[in-house]
Design goal:
The complex is a heterodimer. By secondary structure, chain A is α+β, with helices and mostly antiparallel strands. Chain A has four helices and four strands, in the order H-H-H-E-E-H-E-E. Chain A is globular.
């Protein structure tokens, strides 16, 4: 019925804009609901965890990668997942001496293209859903990690850096009655 | 398993993040300011709707940056049913009805956010939660196009649903 095929400018970008706008509205709503930005941070992390435990299944189904041998392997897979699902290209680096801790470094904070933090929210970690996703996904493949936002361009840092630290391997819990 | 004839496609990889985020918003209780009990879900529904509203409001602006204006209200609604719905949900609205007096009914036979729920009566009561965000997106998009509206949704059979847009007449 329309005279041109689509009136929409660049339909391909719609998905990421839709996600970013939804995420932004969500964070705004949480900031309104919880007076303390720390509570917002915790809730974003918790949401991320719930999403992480689901997205890992999709990731494993799509990629069929074998188990990770070590954290360098895991880091590589996490980097690939960012590219696949979000079209983001963090770099991996800042390895600890024991190779059990590393950084994912982004040029700018994910999802925050049109975002500015007001002064009242200086403690807010805008993209805090991401450390949660990493933590949840790793837990489902039996790796316990801690993850947090170390640097944030929304706060004036040069880059946005998410740190991931290996804590321990999780033993599979055997169902009762099996050896 | 869907009991309707429509095929509910699994989400593509680009749609998955939003679908998971939306699922969390609906199911996790994160938007509720008290422990989830038998309390009414109107707080959740209105917050979901508002998140959708501000998303739709901003999104339509970005989508239509260089486009000419719509020639009338029906043209605008048709845009929502076709181009906008395709952009957001990768399919068109299956059926549009109107009384030409400000009421429009948009039917989607396999609505994305419902396709994960089993198509039985068991989950019917939870259906509205999955539609609030989308009602808000429609209302927000229309609002930024200068049209004030009321948008509600109804489900008769999963995964198909209808969005009712009411545009009050001036005067």
């Amino acid at each position: 019925m329309s005279r041109q095929t689509s009136r929409i400018a660049d339909p391909k970008k719609v998905n990421s804009e839709l996600f970013n706008l939804t995420y932004g509205s969500l964070v705004s709503q949480l900031v309104k609901d919880y007076e303390n930005p720390e509570d917002v941070n915790k809730n974003l992390d918790r949401m991320g965890y719930n999403i992480g435990i689901r997205i890992i299944e999709d990731f494993l189904a799509r990629t069929n990668f074998p188990r990770c041998g070590d954290m360098r392997d895991a880091a590589d897979k996490i980097q690939q997942a960012f590219k696949m699902y979000l079209g983001l290209n963090p770099s991996i680096g800042n390895w600890s001496g024991a190779s059990d801790e590393f950084s994912l470094t982004f040029e700018t904070t994910p999802f925050a293209e049109f975002v500015e933090l007001p002064d009242s929210c200086s403690n807010l970690k805008y993209a805090n859903i991401l450390p949660g996703v990493i933590r949840g996904a790793c837990e489902m493949v039996q790796i316990e990690v801690q993850s947090w936002i170390q640097q944030d361009t929304l706060k004036g840092d040069n880059v946005t850096e998410i740190r991931v630290r290996f804590i321990k391997k999780l033993e599979d819990a055997m169902p009762a009655g099996e050896d | 398993m869907s009991s309707s004839g429509s095929l509910a496609l699994p989400p593509s990889i680009e749609e998955l993040p939003l679908e998971l985020l939306h699922g969390e918003l609906v199911c996790s209780g994160i938007l509720l300011s008290y422990e989830e009990g038998d309390g009414d879900s109107s707080e959740l529904l209105s917050k979901l709707e508002f998140i959708g509203f501000s998303t739709g409001y901003r999104l339509i602006e970005r989508l239509l940056r260089d486009s000419p204006r719509f020639k009338d209200e029906l043209d605008t609604i048709k845009f929502i049913c076709k181009d906008f719905w395709v952009a957001v949900y990768k399919k068109q609205i299956d059926n549009l009805r109107t009384n030409h007096q400000g009421t429009y009914v948009l039917q989607d036979n396999s609505f994305k956010f419902l396709s994960k729920l089993s198509a039985t009566k068991q989950y019917l009561e939870h259906g509205p939660k999955f539609l609030s965000y989308t009602c808000g997106i429609i209302r927000g998009a229309l609002a930024n196009l200068g049209i004030a509206s009321v948008v509600i949704a109804e489900i008769s059979t999963m995964p198909s649903c209808r969005f009712h847009i009411t545009i009050p007449r001036a005067g």
